[in-house]
Amino acid sequence: MTVRIATWNINSITARLPRFLEWLEGAKPDVLCLQELKCATDAFPYDAVKELGYEAAAHGTGRWNGVAVVSRIGLEDVVHGLPEQPGYLADGAMIAEVEPRAIAATCGPVRVWSVYVPNGREVGHPHYTYKLEWLAALRAAVLEDAAGGRPFAVLGDFNVAPTDADVWDPSLFEGSTHVTPAERQALAELRSAGLADVMPRPLKYDHPYTYWDYRQLAFPKNNGMRIDLVYGNQPFVAAVSDSYVDREARKGKGTSDHAPVVVDLDL
Question: Which of 115, 148, 162, 232 could form a disulfide with 236 if both were Cys (CB 3.0 to 4.6 A apart)?
Answer without folding.
Answer: 232
